[in-house]
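Q: Structure tokens for this one, please.
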Amino acid sequence: MITEQTKNNLPFDDQNYLMVEYPDYFFPTKNKRVKVKHLGQKFVSINQFFYDYLKEYHIPSVYVKDHKKNSLVYLKFRQLPFSVKILNRSDKRTSKIFSIKEGLQLELPIFEYHFGISKDSLVSESHLIAFDLCAIEDLKVINRICSKVNAVLKAFFERRHETVAEFTCSFGKHNNKIYLVDDFSPLSLKVFPEGDKNGWANPYSLNTSSEMRRYTDFLLNLTNT
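A: Here is the predicted structure, written as tokens:
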């Protein structure tokens, strides 16, 4: 979940919809805020593209439409208090545990459940069920959605000679139905080019305005090809 988002009720229908605003800054570390010109507008464009794209594959999301240059309209949802990180390449932690090369392409994706945003947020399915964070049937639906989203995104990027190494999904409920509520921004999508790296910045180390701008523009350009 992007913590920089601002959620507001829409004045014309606050019972059913939310307006989600994406600001022109991000936090590379907890206490450091970095401003990037037009960042919110670009985040909106990237998210809007992938929400529309996934809709073609009947993947349920709360996205309704764009509202302004830096905001989207969502169905009003109740956020589930965890996120699912999908790994298609081994990250630093996985590589250390299993003694494999970092960045190794995985034969099957890894689903990680995270409660909170700290480094020690990793939990198991049993934690989610035992502490009543998610019903078993809802978790089955979430896992199916994650599998489908991963397959669709992998195919999308492979056709463009890129590899999606990792992304994070969050979920919410609207009228007792599970929906995808986040997130296809540069803060979630970790995409690596197979060839020319022009305009690309390492998504695991976006610390400056310039690095975030380059990587955001890299993703934005992919949505226009």
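A few notes: The chain is about 30% helix and 35% strand. The mean pLDDT is 91.
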